[in-house]
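STRUCTURE:
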């Protein structure tokens, strides 16, 4: 049974498995307000559904998720906040932080099925999963700092998923990984062919061996052992909003749009 939670988020239920598909191929499934709100609503419903055992998060059109969508905020890039003005970027970015926390708190097994790009915020979604399956053509990365932005909301989730050393390397250098490289650092659990539905069904069958109550209890125990993801939602939203309003972000995003190097990547000789 397929249910369009919105035009940009499709929810399909098959027995005890729900597939949540980001469905905005024109933007490579960028995280618009509609997608974030739809996923938050889906998480709230799933948290109360004891008949649901597995949530599969995936993307349509050959991409998983290209990251955050600036939507109507593009005119704020590089524009300092005026004194006394409420910054709409704060609520927008914090809402994405709420989503990451909600995904991690799901009592069901959360499986990310990645095909194509999983960048920025999409990388953050992957870090929330209990199991990650990626196709060989997938690319996963955190390019924010190369654009003049901090990877604000995703940083603690990347840190908890990869550990401090790999997270520092990934986040501070804006690295991208192939599927096999992502498997090597522990982000991806399985790499399969894009058209290998049989392999995917084997994975689902294996995951269904786990009893739902035991899964929910074990996930809670694991959160207790390691501790919850640090709640940095407000600080991260402020860091992102300030970063987006900076001249650095304006330069970096403009260079990206022109497919040119950002100015800080050039040597003094190149600038001369």
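SEQUENCE:
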């Amino acid at each position: 049974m397929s249910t369009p939670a919105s035009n940009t988020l499709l929810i399909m239920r098959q027995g005890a498995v729900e597939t949540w598909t980001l469905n905005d191929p024109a933007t490579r499934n960028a995280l618009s307000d509609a997608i974030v709100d739809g996923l938050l609503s889906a998480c709230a419903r799933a948290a109360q559904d004891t008949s649901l055992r597995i949530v599969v998060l995936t993307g349509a059109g050959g991409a998983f998720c290209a990251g955050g969508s600036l939507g109507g905020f593009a005119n704020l890039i590089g524009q300092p906040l005026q004194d006394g003005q409420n910054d709409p970027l704060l609520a927008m970015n914090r809402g994405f932080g709420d989503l990451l926390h909600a995904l991690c708190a799901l009592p069901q097994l959360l499986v990310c099925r990645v095909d194509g790009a999983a960048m920025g915020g999409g990388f953050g979604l992957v870090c929330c999963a209990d199991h990650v399956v990626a196709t060989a053509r997938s690319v996963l990365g955190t390019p924010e700092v190369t654009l003049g932005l901090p990877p604000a909301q995703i940083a603690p989730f990347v840190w908890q998923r990869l550990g401090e050393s790999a997270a520092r390397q990934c986040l501070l250098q804006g690295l991208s990984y192939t599927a096999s490289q992502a498997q090597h650092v522990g982000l991806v659990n399985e790499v399969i062919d894009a058209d290998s539905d049989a392999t995917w069904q084997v994975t689902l069958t294996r995951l269904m061996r786990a009893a739902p109550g035991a899964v929910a209890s074990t996930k809670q125990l694991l959160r207790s052992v390691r501790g919850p993801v640090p709640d940095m939602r407000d600080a991260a939203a402020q860091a992102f909003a300030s970063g987006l309003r900076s001249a650095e972000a304006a330069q970096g995003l403009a260079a990206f749009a022109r497919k040119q190097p950002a100015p800080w990547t050039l040597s003094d000789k190149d600038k001369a």
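REMARK: Strands lie at 2-6, 9-14, 17-22, 54-59, 109-114, 117-119, 131-135, 139-141, 176-178, 190-192.
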